[in-house]
Amino acid sequence: MERQEFLDNYLTDRRGTDCSKWDGLKAKFGEKDLLAMWVADMEFKTCDAITTALEKRVRHGVFGYSIVPDRYYEVYSRWMERRYGFPVKKEWVRFSTGCVTGISWMIHAFTNPGDACMILTPVYYPFHNVVTNNNRILVKVDLKYHNGYFTMDYDAVEKAVRENQVKMFLMCSPHNPAGRVWTEEELDQVLAICRRHHVLVVSDEIHQDIVFKGKRFIPAAAVAGRKYRDMVVTLNSASKTFNLATLIHSHIIITDEKLMEAYDKFASGLNRTEVSIMGMEAAMAGYEKGEEWLGSVLNVIYDNYCYLKGTLERGLPGVQVCCMEGTYLPMIDLRACVEPDKVQEFVQKRCRLAVDYGEWFGDGYKGFIRMNLATDPAYVRQAAERMISQA
Widest CA span of the chain, in angstroms? Predict the structure, then answer.
């Protein structure tokens, strides 16, 4: 689908729909007259196949207890095999209401209060909270940063694992907000460290389908001929892919029988919710018929990124729009033009933008912001123009 045709058909105004991004501005930022460039969801309506599937289910009129049909597993497995060479067996799959919920469950299933869980910062802020709020010790290891590009610091990772007796590594892949799609070599190195020290890896791969221009996403459980499958739990969902966050439906993938047995034993004690029938229908329709829509979304997002990077880096010398190999949420390093302590004043008070701030994702990232590019290109232009004119 041509870019303009896609925008004409799917771009929508979400104001007045109880939308967190727009209608929650006052509660979050203290002001409502801001251009919303935060919250990791899209300004695009989901694909027609999903809307049709949901409408059909609504017309049926009954939303009682439901099973997951075999067709769901078949459609999902074909998606994973076609895109990542990783067919998923039915017996490997369990469900949760979201990936962060899934992380919380894994923490309870496989660690004890007082155990150490490691994250690589800057990282999505619920990764911090889900550890500390569950009475585990949070171990933070900074990614290396150079000229807008983040990489793993393997020496620092191994040192932190060894010194803190880390039991679980919460990995973000692709990494939000560093924008990295980890290569198989990078994943192999960090997983090998975890193997040496008996660290369980919980890999949040919710952005797996949001990958750009020649980059290849590798599921952690598939790395190096699946040699780490006995120490990896994978969490993913159609929610970022097709803009379905509040249909509360995501996957837990455990390919190792002993790990699955341990998880199922833990899960038997949960007061578990049923699988979301609407989430299931939506995901199934997206995996079956949503690939063209997704391709159009990725083109718009990447065009927005190229525009923002080119415009800001020309208009604000020294500012860096960090790499965005995956996700739609690049970090922007503003430290060359704004003092870190004054970034919020500059961005919100002068530029009238609502963004996520770097310090939300990790210590030492004050002076960075994260901006959502799954949005109207006109908003991206406005944001860039405001920042340049106010600097």
Answer: 58
